[in-house]
Task: structure prediction
Amino acid sequence: MQNLAFEYDVCVIGGAGHVGLPLAAALAEKGQRTLIYDINEAVLKRISAGEVPFMEDGMEELLPNVLASGKLALTSKKEDIGKADIVIITIGTPVDEFLNPVFKLIKSCIDDLLPYLRDGQLLILRSTVYPNTTDWLARYLEENGRELQVAFCPERVVQGKGLEEIKKLPQLVGGVTPEAQQKAEKLFGLLAPEVVELKPIEAEFAKLFNNAYRYIEFAIANEFYMITRAAGVDYYRVLKGMSHNYPRAKNIPKAGFAAGPCLFKDTMQLSAFSNNRFSLGHSAMLVNEGLVLYIIDEIARDYDLSQLKIGLLGMAFKADNDDIRSSLSYKLKKALEFRAKKVLTTDPFVNVDPELKPLDYVLENSDLFILCTPHSQYKNLDLKGKPIVDIWGFFEKEFDGKLAVESTAPALAARGSNVR
Result:
């Protein structure tokens, strides 16, 4: 689908990030002349050398290949944006301290790009946006005398699995015009197994609903966990019993931190759009965000926090990943620093936090541990007989159908099943 009037087929704005880089590399692999535009020149330099700046399955093998093929180029020059037939923006709508969408970020981005965009280009919004943003963008461009096509084509991949899931998941495409729809479908048809045609606002809602639904699922699990705790019952014995060979309960998640750059933010965007009447979303936020303080209160019932040196195991927002964006581990750390004698943190993957300590140091110098992120390499830790707070059920033995579940860590706490 090369347009020879343009030097590149696609330019990915913010292409050095978690959303942009997997997409850019996948398109280049399919033979598209792909340009990454990003203002972070240090990261661009690393990528141009074949170094992947974050954990992404398959990227270490793919990146050198697409660079060597000449199909992937990188730039920090805005004037290069006009050299691409299709421009994909990977900047989404964040929320502010009042949990309202910061719409001006998208507008500022477009205003910044306007002098460098060319009439006839297709402009695709890729990250989550507030409902009606795509239609607003089309009107805004027209009001400014520009003739560009606009579409919303959200990414819905799991963090760290982008390369894999881009090729496996259906792609939602919401074009403002039939021409934009057709062109966007043709592009993503190179990657996705199927394309789903929607109106722009339908695609925007679909993306937000996907994330809000997942966030609410985690809240249900966390609420169940706290209910069973209050009754003196082990949630994971209940969960394994209710889901054992019972298909209608197989997708109930474990309890744990529901964090990251999307779930909370997108749930709050839906709430703002519905005039703060999204009661399920607000309830989910109170449960998921409140879980951090619940854990501290539970520990305080059995221990004098002021005398405890607490080790936090895992600071990334999800297991076996290096991304700390919106990680509840850091909320827990901040809250504990006011009450505990000392807080030590460690993570085998995170390399952007200078306060992290080696795992052995944290194991040796902590009185109690909290498993914040269930990284797989923690599975066989020698905790030296020290108690650990394990809300994830991570250290439970595999369920054999008899509810004979035991912990691999000694039950040293005076009460309860979350401190082992």
Observations:
- The longest strand covers residues 8-13.
